[in-house]
DNA sequence: CTAACAACTGTCAATATTGACAGTTTATAT
DNA sequence: ATATAAACTGTCAATATTGACAGTTGTTAG
């Protein structure tokens, strides 16, 4: 199985075009016997309206439909992916409460599928789906392929999220100073500016100064939003 | 390779003793040619003093030493694991700035090793380490084993973190009401109580009421801490 | 039917925050 | 040497928060 050893490190690590990257991942998926491959990335921020990007080689009519009807909101695989990193199989059971959606997907040839999610920076969840029209996914086949599928999920996510994240959320590469980080850490744990002043042996004014600078860098409108963003992006 | 197919779903999914679970994982590690296996879980909360648990079959003298000298704080594999889910090999390069630590580890037989981390609930990072004394880890060996190692990392983390998390952070299974969640979401995005009142068409008083109830459930001393905790634990 | 709970509202005082004003000091890199 | 950035401090007024008082209303499960 040459491609698995070769394609691996080459394209995934170096390429910086999402499209090329996705091609590589889809090719590895195809190698595993899946015609279709999809990757979705959901950034938890902003919490009241999380951002989502999708890349797939699904039939474009289905992609459009999925987008138009906002199927993301009801797709049970997405729901599962957001709670658990455990892989999930497309079964009638899974789609029990969303029969119409399931029917429609099948009508586009998306019949047998598998998905797994993964997170890196807290708040970024990626889901890899592998699917095909023809043949059911047997237990035996799965047992033989789980390892490569796990590996592919990991690497697809690591590679794709790295490119997609800064585009979706520019604050993700803000540069916070040490003091800003320290002050935000205490803030996130619920300390008031006055308490932090005591802990860090500086004035309350300085604490507020750092908080305010950090909030500006993070494009946050106050303390709370700054603390949440910093925490979710892994700065603390 | 019978064990890989058999042990898999059985013990990992059902067992609820951490120790038994870890035995299983270590056995799978051994099967892959590694005498030593270690799993560490770090909960980001509280941010100013993150909680860490370790389980391993390392020589107990080394475990004690590692704990006593708080090597967690300087261990380069830990540092790497917290930033990236990419696997990492123990190389001289990696330990360049922590030579004494590296020497000491080697003196306990921990010579050749590999580690990978993974996150699930935002803010929980698990790291699986596989190591041995005897034989260097060649590129060829790695290439052949990456898939199973990726799978093992995932499953070790999913299984172990599920048991360890509620113990470390009881708030992780707090039950927030729908309104509490909605209000916290807006709060986390930086809205003031007054603004949220406008958005949700309730009084400012009610907004503060929900926030305060949520803060109590989350054992948070104010709005900010409540928003951060709720966000990090995936409630929003 | 009724207990329990989520959701909702009111007021008031003490504390905390934010934003806008205007600086000094110290370390680091060119 | 000197620019740059981080770290630090001061004051004041407008807003926001928290905490403690004391309730009503609607839904749901036993």
How are the elements arranged and paired?
Two copies of one chain form a homodimer.
Chain A (H helix, E strand, L loop, with lengths): L1 H13 L3 H14 L4 E8 L7 E6 L3 H9 L7 H8 L4 E2 L9 H9 L4 E8 L4 E9 L6 H30 L9 H11 L4 H8 L3 H14 L5 H10 L4
Antiparallel strand pairs in A: 1-2, 1-5, 3-4, 4-5
Helix pairs in contact in A: 1-2, 2-6, 7-9, 7-10, 8-9, 9-10
The structure holds a DNA duplex (30 and 30 nucleotides).
Structure in words:
The structure is a homodimer of 236-residue chains. By secondary structure, chain A is an alpha+beta fold. Helices cover 53% and strands 14% of the residues of chain A. The first copy, chain A, contains ten helices and five strands; from the N terminus they run ααββααβαββααααα. Chain A has helices at residues 2-14, 18-31, 60-68, 76-83, 99-107, 139-168, 178-188, 193-200, 204-217, 223-232, and strands at 36-43, 51-56, 88-89, 112-119, 124-132. The first copy, chain A, has a five-stranded antiparallel beta sheet, with helices on both faces. In chain A, helix 2 runs antiparallel to helix 6. Chain A is elongated, with a radius of gyration of 21 Å. The relative contact order of chain A is 0.13. The model of chain A has no long low-confidence stretch (mean pLDDT 91). The A-B interface holds A 5, 44, 46-48, 82-86, 118-120, 122-123, 143, 146-148, 150-151, 154, 157-158, 185-192, 220-228, 231-232, 234, 236 and B 5, 44, 46-48, 82-86, 118-120, 122-123, 143, 146-148, 150-151, 154, 157-158, 185-192, 220-228, 231-232, 234, 236. Chain A binds a DNA duplex (30 and 30 nucleotides) through helix 7 and helix 9.
């Amino acid at each position: 199985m040459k491609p698995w050893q070769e394609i691996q490190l080459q394209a995934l690590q170096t390429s910086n075009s999402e499209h090329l990257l996705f091609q590589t991942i889809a090719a590895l998926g195809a190698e595993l016997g899946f015609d279709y491959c999809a990757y979705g990335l959901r950034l938890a921020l902003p919490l009241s309206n999380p951002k989502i990007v999708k890349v797939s080689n699904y039939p474009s009519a289905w992609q459009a439909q999925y987008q138009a009807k906002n199927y993301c909101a009801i797709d049970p695989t997405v729901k599962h992916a957001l709670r658990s990193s455990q892989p999930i199989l497309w079964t009638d059971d899974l789609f029990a409460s969303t029969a119409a959606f399931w029917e429609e997907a099948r009508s586009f040839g998306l019949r047998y599928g598998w998905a797994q999610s993964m997170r890196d920076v807290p708040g970024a969840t990626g889901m890899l789906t592998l699917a095909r029209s023809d043949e059911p996914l047997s237990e035996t086949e799965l047992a033989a392929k789980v390892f490569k599928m796990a590996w592919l999920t990991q690497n697809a996510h690591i590679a794709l999220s790295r490119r997609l994240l800064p585009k979706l959320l520019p604050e993700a590469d803000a540069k916070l100073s040490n003091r800003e980080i320290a002050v935000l850490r205490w803030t996130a744990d619920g300390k008031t500016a006055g308490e932090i002043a005591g802990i860090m042996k500086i004035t309350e004014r300085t604490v507020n100064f750092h908080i305010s600078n950090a909030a500006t860098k993070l494009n946050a409108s106050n303390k709370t939003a700054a603390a949440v963003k910093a925490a979710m992006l892994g700065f603390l």
